Write a sequence for this structure.
């Protein structure tokens, strides 16, 4: 005899269920089928599963972005990583001048170029961005701060603070790698000591700063120009000839006549490396400099400026 569904034989005995009747009742529920498998799934469970999958995917994007920030070597890489994360999360990035009301008040450029803002095309994506971006940008700011400190330290270690040219340490490293055929231009300011003695060290610093500006302005991008010490400067030209160095020297003389803060001249010597010993080419350029100094007119004597009462 078939037992109807459901039937309780005894309060302590589990009911026996007619499988056909159960299947019929399940089909009558608010369900849908997966076409590929025919498996019956509750829509609420399906939506919850999709939401969970999307959340996990967004968290993975966030984690990958954070990891990329920790390995960023430049501020530009930090900016690109943040913009990439925004796009991966469904947003877009536009210049601040083009942003509308759908933009988030979060700046992504970190001072590198034009300000950038993230855009959320929907409320759902806006919620995602507002949830994940604050922590990502905190990591980004930490990385940017570290990179800027590193840049300052690297600059202090390689750049002369007064002139903005390479310092003695950097020049020594470059000279140690000088190749046959490289050209060296050695310069110093004539009677520079008299500037400090008569007008003071502030005036001397002003002359050095102006001379460094002239060398930076007239040199090629590939020329490595630095302050060897005091009023001595060196330019190392690779892939150039002695004539190229002479033309650079003449450009510097012309610019210096226009920009010098005091009537100070400079002497220069040019030498081409004939071996790999940097001392040899430096000594040759130094000899040429003193020959130039001997035949050039000296700087006019400087007089101290008397302050008016």
């Amino acid at each position: 005899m078939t037992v109807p569904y459901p039937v309780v034989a005894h309060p302590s005995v589990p009911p026996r269920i007619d499988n056909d009747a159960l299947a019929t009742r399940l089909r009558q529920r608010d369900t849908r089928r997966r076409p590929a498998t025919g498996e019956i799934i509750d829509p609420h469970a399906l939506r919850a599963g999709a939401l969970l999958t999307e959340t996990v995917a967004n968290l993975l994007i966030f984690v990958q972005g954070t990891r990329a920030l920790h390995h960023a070597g430049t501020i530009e890489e930090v900016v690109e990583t943040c913009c990439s994360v925004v796009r991966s999360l469904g947003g877009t990035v536009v210049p601040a001048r083009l942003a509308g009301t759908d933009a988030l008040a979060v700046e992504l450029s970190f001072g590198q170029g034009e300000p950038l803002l993230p855009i959320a095309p929907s409320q759902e994506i806006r919620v995602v961005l507002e949830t994940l971006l604050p922590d990502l940008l905190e990591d980004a700011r930490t990385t940017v701060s570290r990179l800027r400190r590193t840049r300052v330290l690297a600059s202090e270690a390689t750049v002369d603070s007064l002139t903005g040219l390479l310092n003695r340490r950097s020049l020594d490293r470059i000279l140690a790698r000088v190749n046959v055929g490289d050209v060296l231009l050695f310069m110093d300011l004539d009677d520079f000591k008299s500037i400090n003695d008569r007008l003071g060290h502030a005036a001397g610093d002003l002359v050095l700063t102006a001379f460094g500006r002239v060398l930076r302005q007239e040199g090629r991008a590939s020329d490595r120009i630095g302050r060897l010490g005091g009023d001595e400067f060196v330019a190392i030209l690779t892939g150039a000839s002695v004539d190229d160095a002479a033309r650079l020297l003449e450009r510097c003389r012309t610019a210096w006549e226009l920009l010098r803060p005091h009537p100070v001249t400079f002497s220069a010597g040019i030498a081409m490396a004939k071996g790999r010993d940097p001392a040899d080419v430096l000594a040759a350029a130094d000899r040429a400099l003193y020959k130039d100094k001997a035949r050039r007119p000296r700087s006019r004597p400087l007089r101290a400026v008397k302050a008016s009462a």
User: Anything to note?
Assistant: The chain has two domains: 44-157, 168-295. Residues 168-295 form a domain with the Alpha-Beta Plaits fold (CATH 3.30.70.270). Confidence is low (pLDDT under 50) at residues 1-18, 29-38, 299-309. The first helix runs from residue 19 to 27.
